[in-house]
Amino acid sequence: MQTYIPFNKPSLIGNEIKYIRDAVRLGQLAGDGGYTKKCQETINRLAGSHKSLITHSCTAALEMAAILCDLGPGDEVIMPSFTFVSTANAVVLRGATPVFADIDCKTLNIDPDEVRKCVTPRTKAIFAVHYAGFPADMDRLREIATEHDLLLVEDAAQALGSTYKGRPAGSLGDMAAFSFHETKNIISGEGGALTINREDLFERAEIIREKGTNRSKFFRGQVDKYTWVDIGSSYLPGELIAAYLYAQLEMETAIRTRRISVFDAYMEAFEPCAKSGQVTLPQVPPYCTGNGHMFYLLMKDVKVRTDFIQDMKSRGIITPFHYVPLHSAPAGQRYGRTPGKMSVTDRISKTLVRLPMYFDLGSDTETVISTTLDILGAN
Ligand SMILES: Cc1ncc(COP(=O)(O)O)c(C=O)c1O
């Protein structure tokens, strides 16, 4: 039989269907019911956050964060260009300007030295992405944020379960946005969460998620009717999504452990190719633990990478590249500002390739490894 190993496969791990049936039986399909609360309590525990609100996507959580930062025309937000469009869109939707800073060539996360060079009197926040699930250097970013009175937001889309100096991703910034899209570790099809670590933002966050109303206060019996009090949108997922998500969150340790074992197997198998200079492996900073979200290789140049992707595909294994840098995208040029050189971003985006990584990869891990080694001529 012809091999086919996709890049990602959504998982059904434990109680997803049982909890969805239960949510139907309970009779509340709109959001903010029992499963939403259970998800939020679990996220608070996993992310070490004071308050979390689940959303229909990480994109929604980032948009909420941008509103909570009070961004408006003239304001600037420093972020990497090597990220998904949602990091920048959230800022642009408020009329503010994303300012793109280069990444560190070892971690592929935003480089604090480059961030420092991008600060102007108009800077209002830093949006740091935890690429491949490995947290950015948050202590150094916090130093800059404190010095210039900036908000610090984690785009932790890929990072649930990872740690930085012993502290969980999601507890490191003023706010953090997570994704539960089907390509992530913990999934609900589409899904996300915002964790909020500043008490002065808790109440407004609830209002923004509920279309700008104080509906959450009303349901807690704190006001006797609810009304429109602020800007907002419909960022709340329904209970069916929350039920699926809760079943996955319950299994977070098992999911993370399984994915880390694939990550470790890839690292060990490709070590000789790294030693011979054929590829570069992910470099895990000593102060971080990852969550096995992603495994990537850096190839010598764009041609080697294109040929590799093609060869893998011809043998039935899907190995995509990743972000097209936002500073070079049409909307990035229209809405963003790029004060410095983006040489690391440009090089990484041309040479990075991702290998299959999902909960049920199982013995196909060996097929990916042997085929990769074969194509690299290292078998
Ligand atoms: C860094 C980053 N931020 C934001 C997102 C958006 O997540 P979602 O699809 O849940 O909106 C992604 C999605 O892959 C991402 O990688």
Offer a quick outline of the entry.
With 379 residues, the protein is an alpha/beta fold. It has helices at 16-26, 34-47, 58-68, 85-92, 112-118, 138-148, 199-209, 215-219, 239-250, 252-275, 302-314, 330-335, 343-351, 364-375, and strands at 51-55, 76-80, 97-101, 123-129, 151-155, 163-164, 167-168, 175-179, 192-196, 288-289, 296-298, 352-354.
Question: Can you walk me through this structure?
Answer:
The chain is an alpha/beta fold. It folds into 2 domains: 16-251, Type I PLP-dependent aspartate aminotransferase-like (Major domain) (Aspartate Aminotransferase, domain 2, 3-Layer(aba) Sandwich), CATH 3.40.640.10; 253-375, Aspartate Aminotransferase, domain 1 (Alpha-Beta Complex). It contains 14 helices and 12 strands. A 7-stranded mixed sheet has the order 1-9-8-5-4-2-3, with helices on both faces. The protein has a 3-stranded antiparallel sheet with strand order 7-6-10, with no helix packed on it. A hairpin with a 2-residue loop joins strand 6 and strand 7 (167-168). Helix 3 runs parallel beside helix 4 (85-92). It starts with 15 loop residues before the first helix and ends with a helix. The mean pLDDT is 97.
